[in-house]
């Protein structure tokens, strides 16, 4: 994460690390295979999907499940690494690769569940080509999601990025910017609230839905699901992939019932990836 991340996120992360020291072997931790599986998740849609599993499928499968909600992108992985929780569900592979590299964590994916298409939203224009010269566009401040946002704009001809740029692209990699757009980096969770202050914002799907935006309807540009590498998955600390509770949850998360729930609940704003 870049240094624009809120102080409260750092405090939460530090608190999670402190909790983890005392959590080893505690009920719900990754070391207690007989207790409930505690899963860290973003509120929407991840926790909603997990709570559907908990309320409708888990008992029959013999799975005790506890869902802990987090609104930042640091704490879930740190808590999974230190054993405070047994798994997490909130991220995609490029984000995880970047996080493991920067934080020295050892988190691995278990099963892919869904895609939240990234979108460009605006309270001021109906189409991207209506953005005025010098307009300000807010983008996520974390490395992977900023690159993803810029790639979205590149794919729709708003800007042009340097050829071959990867998941660390920044505005410095823009080679053509016909409208002279200015980019404002904000923590991902703040982006929906920024829409009254900027001309447009690229918002992660989970935060868009949480802010009562409907990506399939409200986004003026929306990411395509075809060959998309940003699908979200259940993840654990390496070595816990064979935990019987994790295996049960992975099976339930990719069940026909969950696929139907995702389709019915989100109406195209969240897409099953299995």
TrEMBL record:
Bilayer topology annotation: Lipid-anchor
Classification via InterPro entries: Lipoprotein_NlpA
Originating species: Streptomyces javensis
Secretion signal span: 1-25
Transmembrane segments: none
Subcellular location: Membrane
Main location, first listed in the record: membrane
A Pfam family this chain is assigned to: Lipoprotein_9
The protein, known as: Lipoprotein
């Amino acid at each position: 994460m870049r240094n624009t991340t809120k102080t409260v996120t750092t405090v939460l992360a530090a608190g999670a690390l402190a909790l983890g020291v005392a959590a080893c072997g505690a009920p719900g931790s990754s070391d207690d295979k007989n207790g409930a599986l505690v899963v860290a998740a973003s509120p929407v849609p991840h926790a909603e999907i997990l709570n559907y599993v908990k309320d409708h499928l888990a008992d029959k499968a013999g799975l005790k499940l506890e869902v802990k909600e987090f609104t930042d992108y640091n704490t879930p992985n740190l808590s999974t690494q230190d054993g405070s929780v047994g798994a997490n569900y909130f991220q995609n592979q490029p984000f995880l690769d970047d996080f493991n590299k920067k934080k020295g964590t050892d988190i691995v994916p278990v099963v892919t569940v869904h895609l939240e298409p990234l979108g460009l939203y605006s309270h001021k224009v109906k189409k991207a080509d209506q953005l005025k010269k010098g307009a300000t566009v807010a983008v996520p401040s974390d490395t992977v999601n900023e690159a993803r946002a810029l790639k979205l704009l590149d794919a729709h001809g708003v800007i042009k990025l340097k050829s071959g740029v990867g998941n660390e692209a920044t505005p410095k990699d823009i080679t053509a910017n016909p409208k002279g757009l200015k980019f404002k980096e904000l923590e991902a969770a703040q982006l929906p609230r920024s829409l009254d202050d900027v001309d447009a914002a690229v918002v992660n799907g989970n935060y868009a839905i949480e802010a009562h935006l409907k990506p399939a309807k409200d986004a003026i540009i929306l990411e395509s699901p075809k060959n998309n590498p940003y699908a979200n998955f259940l993840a654990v600390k390496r070595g816990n992939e064979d935990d019987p509770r994790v295996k049960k949850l992975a099976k339930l998360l990719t069940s026909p019932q969950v696929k139907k729930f995702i389709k019915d609940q989100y109406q195209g704003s969240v897409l099953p990836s299995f």
